[in-house]
C-alpha cells in the first residue's frame, strides 16, 4: 500500500471562542522586583479602574498562570472586554511609584497558540 | 455642514425635603454628574464627558434638570446618572437621586414632553389635596393650562406657568 | 505584511538612554523610528539643532525583532508655533527627514492645514485643545496629504493627561473620520514605549476603526515618510544630488527616487 503524502489540514471553527487569551510580561526598571500573583492582579485591576472606572474594574478576567521570576502571565478575558483590558494594560505606567511597562507578547482566542511564539524565532 | 447630534436627558431631581430644591444650580449639578461619571467610567468616561456635555436647563422649583450629551456616547454617560447620591450646591450638600423621565433629540421635543408631564402631575396631585383651597388652586391650574392647549404658539409660557403652580 | 513605525522619539541629550530607547523599539518590532527635535521659537535664541546621523548615534543599529534588517533611524523636526512668524521655511529644515508643526492657536492650525509645507500636525495631549478642529481645514490637510499626530506618552505618565489625550484624540478622530491619523509615542524613557499592537489597540479606544488603527502605526507612517521625501525632492520624481568626480566639475544628476507604485500613492493623498 502506497503511503499518502503529508498534507495540511485546515481547521475552521464555526463558532469562535468565547475568550481571548493574552500572554503578558511586566517589565520594571528595578529588575529584582517580585510580586505575588495577588499583587499582580491587583495592579492590573487598578489600571483598569483608573481608565474605565468601577464599571470597567467589575469586568471579570482570570489570571491563569503567573511566573514569579519572569513576571510573565497568561490572562483569560471575555472577547467583549479584550479591548478595554488591553488598552488599560497599555496605559499602566508605574507600579509603586516606579516606572514599569506591560509587554503584550501574544493575544489569541486559543490557549494552545500561546505555547509557541513566532516573534521570538531568530531569523537570519 | 454636518450636524452634531445631541441627546437631551430630562431628569427629575428627587429630594426628601422639597425646600432644598431651591439650592440647585447649574454648576453644582454639572460637577455632581462629572464626579459620578469619573467614578463609574474612569478617565475614559471623563474624556467622553468633557466633549460636548452641558447642563441645558435647571428648574429649581420643580427640580427638573435637562442634561445635554453627545449622541455617540450618551448611553455611557447616562449609565452613571443612577449613582449620583448628593449634589454640592451653594456650600450645602443636598441628598438626592436622579430620575430620568425623558430622552429627546431636541430641546423642543423635551419642552413639549415637559408641558405634558407637568399637566399630568397636576391631575395626579388633585386627589392628594387636603384642604378645599388647595383643591381649588390645582383645579384652576389644570384649567388654565388646558385652555392654553389650543394656543400652540404660547407653549413656552405655558410650560413655565404650569411648573410653578405645581409646587 | 506591514512594517510598524514610531515617528516620535524625543531627542534627549543622554545618548546612552537614546540608544536604549532605540534598542527597545527594535525589540518591540518597530522597523523605523524618528528622532524628534523640538524647537520652541518663542523662547529666545533657540537654534534649530543639527540632527545626529544614525551612525553617530549607535555604531551598530539593533536588528528589528522578527526581521533580519537593522532598524532605520530618521530625523524629525517639530516646530512649536504660537505665532505666525515662528514657522519659517529655511535651509535648516532641509536637514530633517520629517517636518512637523504643533500649532497652539486656531489661526495657526488653519494655516498649518492649508498652506504650511509640513508632513505632520501635532495635536495637544498635555492640555485641553484650546480650539476646536474645524472640518474644513482638516479636510484640506487630508487632501494635501498632511497627517495628524497623537502621541500617547503623556497618557501613560499622568492620570489627568490621560483624560486630555483621550478627549482630544476622540475629537480629532471624529472630525477627520479616522483618516490621516498617526499614533506615535513621544518617549523619553524606554519604559514608556509600547508595542505596535498595543498602540493599534489603543487606537480603538480613540474611536478609530480596526483598519484605521492599524494603519495609524503602519501605512500612514509610511505615507508621512514618503511625503517628507516629496518635500525634499521634486514631488518625489526627481532628486538632485551632487556627483563627486575629480575630472569633471560637479554635475547635477537627475535620479529616479521612488518607484512608480509608491509615487502613485503619495500623489493620490
TrEMBL record, chain A:
Among InterPro entries, the record links this protein to:
Pop5/Rpp14/Rnp2-like, Rnp2-like_sf
Note whether tRNA processing occurs among the keywords: yes
Pfam name, any one: RNase_P_Rpp14
Pull one GO CC term from this UniProt entry: multimeric ribonuclease P complex
The answer to whether UniProt assigns keyword tRNA processing to this entry is: yes
Biological process (GO) annotations held by this record are: tRNA 5'-leader removal
Which UniProt keywords are given for this protein, alphabetically ordered? tRNA processing
Q: Name one GO molecular function term.
A: ribonuclease P RNA binding
Q: Which family does it belong to?
A: Belongs to the eukaryotic/archaeal RNase P protein component 2 family.
Name this protein carries in UniProt: Ribonuclease P protein subunit p14
Write the gene name: rpp14
From TrEMBL, chain B:
- Which Gene Ontology biological process is one annotated for this entry? rRNA processing
Endoplasmic reticulum listed as a keyword: no
Show the InterPro entries listed in the entry: Pop5/Rpp14/Rnp2-like (IPR002759), RNase_P/MRP_POP5 (IPR016819), Rnp2-like_sf (IPR038085)
Q: Where in the cell is it found?
A: Nucleus, Nucleolus
Indicate yes or no for the key word Transit peptide.
no
Q: Which Gene3D superfamilies match?
A: Ribonuclease P, Pop5 subunit (3.30.70.3250)
Q: Which Pfam families match?
A: RNase_P_Rpp14
Briefly, what is this protein's role? Component of ribonuclease P, a protein complex that generates mature tRNA molecules by cleaving their 5'-ends.
Similarity remark: Belongs to the eukaryotic/archaeal RNase P protein component 2 family.
Q: What is this protein called?
A: Ribonuclease P/MRP protein subunit POP5
Q: Which organism is it from?
A: Ictalurus punctatus (Channel catfish)
Automatic annotation (TrEMBL), chain C:
UniProt region (Disordered), positions on chain? 245-269
Q: What is its main location?
A: nucleus
Name any Gene Ontology BP term: translation
- Species source reads Ictalurus punctatus
- Protein's name according to its UniProt entry: Ribonuclease P protein subunit p30
**Mind telling me which SUPFAM superfamilies this protein's record contains?**
PHP domain-like
- Provide the organism lineage as a comma list: Eukaryota, Metazoa, Chordata, Craniata, Vertebrata
Q: Which GO terms describe its cellular component?
A: nucleolar ribonuclease P complex; ribosome
> Where is the protein found, in the record's own terms?
Nucleus, Nucleolus
| Membership in a protein family | Belongs to the eukaryotic/archaeal RNase P protein component 3 family.
Amino acid at each position: 500500500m502506497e503511503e499518502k503524502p503529508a498534507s495540511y489540514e485546515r481547521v475552521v471553527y464555526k463558532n469562535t471562542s468565547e475568550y481571548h487569551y493574552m500572554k503578558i510580561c511586566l517589565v520594571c526598571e528595578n529588575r529584582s522586583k517580585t510580586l505575588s500573583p495577588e499583587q499582580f492582579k491587583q495592579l492590573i485591576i487598578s489600571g483598569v479602574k483608573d481608565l474605565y472606572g468601577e464599571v470597567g474594574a467589575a469586568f471579570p478576567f482570570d489570571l491563569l498562570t503567573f511566573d514569579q521570576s519572569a513576571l510573565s502571565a497568561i490572562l483569560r478575558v471575555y472577547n467583549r472586554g479584550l479591548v478595554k483590558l488591553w488598552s488599560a494594560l497599555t496605559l499602566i505606567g508605574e507600579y509603586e511609584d516606579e516606572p514599569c511597562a506591560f509587554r503584550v507578547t501574544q493575544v489569541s482566542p486559543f490557549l494552545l497558540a500561546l505555547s509557541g511564539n513566532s516573534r521570538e524565532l531568530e531569523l537570519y | 455642514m454636518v450636524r452634531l447630534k445631541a441627546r437631551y436627558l430630562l431628569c427629575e431631581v428627587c429630594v426628601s425635603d422639597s425646600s432644598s430644591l431651591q439650592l440647585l444650580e447649574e454648576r453644582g449639578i454639572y460637577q455632581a454628574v462629572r464626579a459620578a461619571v469619573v467614578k463609574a467610567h474612569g478617565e475614559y468616561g471623563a474624556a467622553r464627558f468633557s466633549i460636548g456635555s452641558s447642563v441645558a436647563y435647571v428648574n429649581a422649583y420643580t427640580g427638573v434638570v435637562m442634561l445635554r450629551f453627545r449622541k455617540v456616547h450618551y448611553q455611557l454617560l447616562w449609565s452613571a446618572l443612577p449613582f449620583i447620591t448628593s449634589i454640592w450646591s451653594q456650600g450645602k450638600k443636598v441628598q438626592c437621586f436622579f430620575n430620568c423621565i425623558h430622552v429627546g433629540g431636541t430641546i423642543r421635543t423635551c419642552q413639549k414632553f415637559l408641558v405634558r408631564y407637568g399637566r399630568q402631575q397636576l391631575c395626579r396631585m388633585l386627589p392628594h389635596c387636603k384642604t378645599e383651597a388647595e383643591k381649588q388652586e390645582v383645579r384652576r391650574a389644570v384649567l388654565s393650562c388646558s385652555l392654553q392647549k389650543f394656543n400652540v404658539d404660547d407653549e413656552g409660557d405655558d410650560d413655565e406657568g404650569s411648573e410653578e403652580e405645581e409646587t | 505584511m506591514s512594517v510598524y513605525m514610531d515617528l516620535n522619539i524625543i531627542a534627549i541629550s543622554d545618548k546612552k538612554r537614546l540608544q536604549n530607547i532605540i534598542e527597545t523599539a527594535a525589540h518591540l518590532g518597530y522597523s523605523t523610528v524618528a528622532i524628534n527635535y523640538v524647537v520652541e521659537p518663542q523662547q529666545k535664541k533657540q537654534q534649530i539643532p543639527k540632527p545626529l546621523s544614525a551612525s553617530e548615534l549607535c555604531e551598530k543599529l539593533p536588528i528589528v525583532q522578527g526581521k533580519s534588517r537593522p532598524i532605520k533611524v530618521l530625523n524629525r523636526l517639530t516646530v512649536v508655533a504660537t505665532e505666525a512668524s515662528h514657522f519659517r521655511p529655511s535651509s535648516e529644515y532641509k536637514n530633517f527627514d520629517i517636518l512637523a508643526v504643533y500649532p497652539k492657536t486656531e489661526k495657526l492650525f488653519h494655516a498649518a492645514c492649508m498652506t504650511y509645507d509640513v508632513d505632520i500636525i501635532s495635536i495637544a495631549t498635555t492640555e485641553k485643545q484650546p480650539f476646536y478642529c474645524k472640518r474644513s481645514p482638516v479636510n484640506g490637510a487630508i487632501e494635501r496629504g498632511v497627517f495628524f499626530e497623537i502621541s500617547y506618552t503623556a497618557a501613560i505618565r499622568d492620570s489627568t493627561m490621560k483624560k486630555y489625550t483621550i478627549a482630544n484624540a476622540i475629537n480629532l478622530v471624529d472630525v477627520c473620520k479616522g483618516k490621516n491619523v498617526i499614533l506615535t509615542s513621544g518617549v523619553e524613557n524606554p519604559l514608556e514605549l509600547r508595542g505596535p499592537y498595543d498602540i493599534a489597540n489603543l487606537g480603538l479606544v480613540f474611536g478609530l476603526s480596526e483598519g484605521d488603527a492599524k494603519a495609524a502605526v503602519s501605512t500612514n507612517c509610511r505615507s508621512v515618510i514618503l511625503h517628507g521625501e516629496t518635500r525634499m525632492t521634486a514631488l518625489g520624481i526627481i532628486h538632485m544630488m551632487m556627483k563627486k568626480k575629480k575630472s569633471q566639475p560637479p554635475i547635477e544628476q537627475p535620479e529616479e527616487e521612488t518607484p512608480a507604485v509608491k509615487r502613485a500613492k503619495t500623489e493620490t493623498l
